[in-house]
Amino acid sequence: MAASSNRPSLSLPGSGGRSKEGILARVSNSAIVQSGTRAASSAAFVAKKLARSTGNAAWIAGTAFLVLCVPLIIVMDREQQLNELEMQQASLLGTPSFASSSAPPATK
Amino acid sequence: MGSSVSHAAPPAPPPPVASPLGLIPPQPDAKESESKAEEKVDYLNLPCPVPYEEIQREALFSLKPELFEGMRFDFTKGLNQRFSLSHSVFMGSMELPQSAEPVKVPTAHYEFGANFIDPKFMLFGRVLTDGRLNARAKIDLTDNLILKINAQIQNGPYSQGTFNFDYKGKDYRTQFQMGNGAFYGFNYIQSVTPNLSLGTEAFWLGHQRKSGVGFAARYNTDKMVAAGQVASTGLVALSYVHKVSEKVSLASDFMYNAMSRDATASFGYDYMLRQCRLRGKIDSNGVVSAFLEERLNMGVNFILSAEIEHAKKDYKFGFGMTVGE
């Protein structure tokens, strides 16, 4: 905002003093460029604010995730591993008993 | 026994009644009486409700773990079957609810405790190095009447003592409380259906000249527990716990205080796994907390506690160890 208001005030004395304007001054004084710079600066302002609030939100969400979900994931993963281990052991130890139980029908 | 007999008796009459056409009118009566008898049988064998003060216990278990900041170490040693000693060290910061903003004060204390546990007679004592003493006793006077004594002694005017007489009926419970400061309380809870129980309480604080009444309802099935409580002090508390499986339960609660006009709601999970118990919670004030109890070995537990409040920039992390029991 400050930049867009500064620019005309700087170039205005020049244009007032001289009847003939340089091509650069004429370009920078044109309405399109002025509105463009204004739009760009306000866009930058909004983008900065947006980035900051997104960063803040991401920080809050990330820490909440770290506290709430990460332990849960680790714990569930270990529980599953334990379950698998138990299944393996059961299948290793369980086969003889399963074979013995299936043996009587085979002898029949 | 009686129920099965009375239940078996009514079904016999209808067939002879139904076959003669002239005797149709009595049929509905017979059915009505049968259903009434069934209901009566049902309503006479209601289960005993939970005690009034434990009406929200499932939600409390899941949503209110003992979060702390710092380090704690608890050690319990049983000397014999009935007698055990406990030692506990805590180092960290504690919040003192001073004026408007709570102030964190670094503290360290040691707590010594002695427990005597007998099925009919229990005694618990705790002494802290800063002079606080807490003593509890639970005595079974008869099978149904239990006397509980609780005393808390500390420096300053906050010492208190209470006597509770709990009477457990077949489908109701009642309690009479008596405490210092001329505090008298009475509550009663009754099972209305096998799932629903309703309760009421009344209390009188003599020294502060305050009195109040409260009502509570609890509905529980094997999958869920819903409880609600209203008191004339302006407190409304509702809670709902859903058991997803035998290891996992989800809980939520809502609390409204009409005096201070603030309402909070929270939602949490409670995972009870083979080697650990994990409880997490998020509430409407933006407080996120988690509490992990990890079983390292038989009788050795490792505790991690975390609580984050971004709004106040208040972060609390703690770890601890529990040995014994």
TrEMBL record, chain A:
It is found in: Mitochondrion outer membrane. The keyword Transmembrane applies. It is a single-pass membrane protein. The chain crosses the membrane at residues 57-76. Keywords: Membrane, Mitochondrion, Mitochondrion outer membrane, Protein transport, Receptor, Translocation, Transmembrane, Transmembrane helix, Transport. Residues 1-21 are annotated as: Disordered. Residues 1-13 have a biased composition (Low complexity). Belongs to the Tom22 family. This is Uncharacterized protein. It comes from Aristolochia fimbriata (White veined hardy Dutchman's pipe vine).
Automatic annotation (TrEMBL), chain B:
Signal peptide: none annotated. It comes from the Eukaryota. Residues 10-28 have a biased composition (Pro residues). Keywords: Acetylation, Ion transport, Membrane, Mitochondrion, Mitochondrion outer membrane, Porin, Protein transport, Transmembrane, Transmembrane beta strand, Transport. Its main location: mitochondrion. GO terms for biological process: monoatomic ion transport; protein import into mitochondrial matrix. The keyword Iron does not apply. Central component of the receptor complex responsible for the recognition and translocation of cytosolically synthesized mitochondrial preproteins. Together with TOM22 functions as the transit peptide receptor at the surface of the mitochondrion outer membrane and facilitates the movement of preproteins into the translocation pore. Directly involved in the pore formation. This is Mitochondrial import receptor subunit TOM40-1. The lineage of its organism: Eukaryota, Viridiplantae, Streptophyta, Embryophyta, Tracheophyta.
